[in-house]
Write a structure and sequence with these properties.
This protein is α+β, with helices and mostly antiparallel strands. The protein has 2 domains: 200 residues; 147 residues, no CATH class. It is 51% helix and 20% strand. The chain has 11 helices and 13 strands. Strands 1, 2, 5, 6, 7, 9 and 10 form a 7-stranded mixed β-sheet that branches. A hairpin with a 2-residue loop joins β3 and β4. α5 crosses α10 and α8 packs antiparallel against α11. It is elongated and about 75 Å long.
């Protein structure tokens, strides 16, 4: 590949990674279904902020959703949600009814709670099919976290635009299928978790450079750069695996607002360190320290599901493996290009300095938003 081609590829990668995106918790809903001898019962928790975007709950436009505004739209909420959920028992369609709604608080805000009664013909089904398309036309990143209980066993799955239709065999639990499902979710989470990606990118940018005589200079060999990246990624992985496990298992719990604020601050620190370094040569220590906080951020995607311990262990391991695979893909894409361009002014000035300043500025806005519960950006 020519130098021009490498330059264009690096520029494209940088712009893709720095594309403005929502850095907060992804859009989730929580669907629980319990299979009984005659009917199925369930509960569906849907975020009010997502429903407001879809059908407009804030009647007076003051930026706050009140209980009165939600109660006045209960019929429309149920109709909107049930039109996007379908169940089949052994191939035959089931009829779903929604009961009286209530409000519940999750780690990321208020949710409406829809009790569900699901009428399926015949005896308890051997196979249950779920077609889930909530917010599919509005948010391609939305997912429904499913907990399915049948015959004393619990299954878990992630529903959404990437896998809207799934079928479950109720007489057998495939642990491998659960593991793969959450591993795939971990990969997807790291790729759309732009705050985590930008932190990792901030640590990778100087991996092909060395701070000497008051300026960044290109390293001569790929091997030292590779081992620097290996230490950074390993430290980050070990650290966030520790806190992810502790948070999901309920051993340690921190306020979501504090965690998200510190994650934003970690990006600012890592990015500015690339412009005028005060820590160099031991970036793995920075990666480990802030990785502990990022682990709590990863945990929010699993903590609200309320799985029993056996299913939770599978979800935890699968999700963590997926996160590592997602990180590895970013490293394998970025590092060879960075090494090829390390001696160019484009890399040192546009990618390293300019990119780091852009990352720091964006993360600074996120920090203000999260610390003071403000909304400054439209995305």
């Amino acid at each position: 590949m020519s130098r021009l081609g490498l330059t264009l590829a690096m520029l494209g990668l940088t712009l893709a990674l720095l594309e403005p995106a929502e850095a907060h918790k992804p859009s989730d809903s929580y669907l629980s279904i319990s299979v009984g001898e005659r009917d199925l019962i369930g509960q569906w928790d849907i975020a009010l902020r997502d429903l407001d975007f879809a059908i407009g709950l804030d009647a007076d436009g003051n930026g706050e959703i009140t209980w009165g505004e939600v109660r006045a739209r209960h019929g429309e909420i149920a109709a909107y949600a049930l039109a996007r959920l379908a169940l089949q028992a052994d191939g035959a369609a089931c009829r779903i009814e929604a009961g009286a709604q209530s409000i519940d608080e999750h780690t990321d805000g208020a949710y409406t709670v829809l009790p569900l009664t699901i009428h399926c013909a015949g005896a308890p089904p051997a196979h249950l099919g779920i077609d889930y398309r909530l917010f599919a036309d509005l948010d391609p990143q939305h997912r429904g976290l499913l907990k399915l209980q049948a015959l004393g066993q619990t299954r878990t799955a992630v529903l959404g635009p990437q896998a809207p239709t799934q079928t479950f065999e109720l007489e057998a639990v495939s642990r491998w299928a659960q593991f793969v499902d959450y591993a795939r979710e971990g990969v997807w989470h790291i790729w759309i978790g732009f705050d985590h990606v930008l932190f990792l990118l901030s640590l990778l940018l100087p991996s092909v450079l060395a701070w000497q005589a008051g300026r960044w200079q290109a390293v001569d060999w790929f091997k030292p750069a590779f081992w620097d990246v290996f230490r950074v990624v390993t430290a980050f992985t070990v650290a966030h695996s520790i806190t992810l496990s502790l948070a999901v298992l309920g051993v340690v719990n921190l306020p979501s607002r504090l965690v998200e604020s510190v994650i934003a601050a970690s990006i600012v620190v890592a990015a500015l360190n690339n412009v005028r370094p005060w820590v160099f040569g031991r970036l793995w220590m920075v990666a480990f320290g802030f990785g502990l906080v990022h682990g709590f951020g990863f945990a929010t995607v699993l903590a609200d599901l309320g799985l029993p311990r056996d299913a939770l262990a599978i979800a935890l391991v699968g999700f963590n493996v997926g996160v590592e695979l997602g990180q590895l893909a970013i490293v394998l894409l970025f590092l060879p290009l960075a090494f090829a361009l390390r001696r160019t002014g484009f890399y040192r000035r546009a990618v390293m300095t300019g990119g780091s300043l852009l990352i720091a500025a964006l993360a600074g806005v996120w920090l203000v938003e999260r610390a003071f519960d403000m909304k400054l950006l439209s995305f």
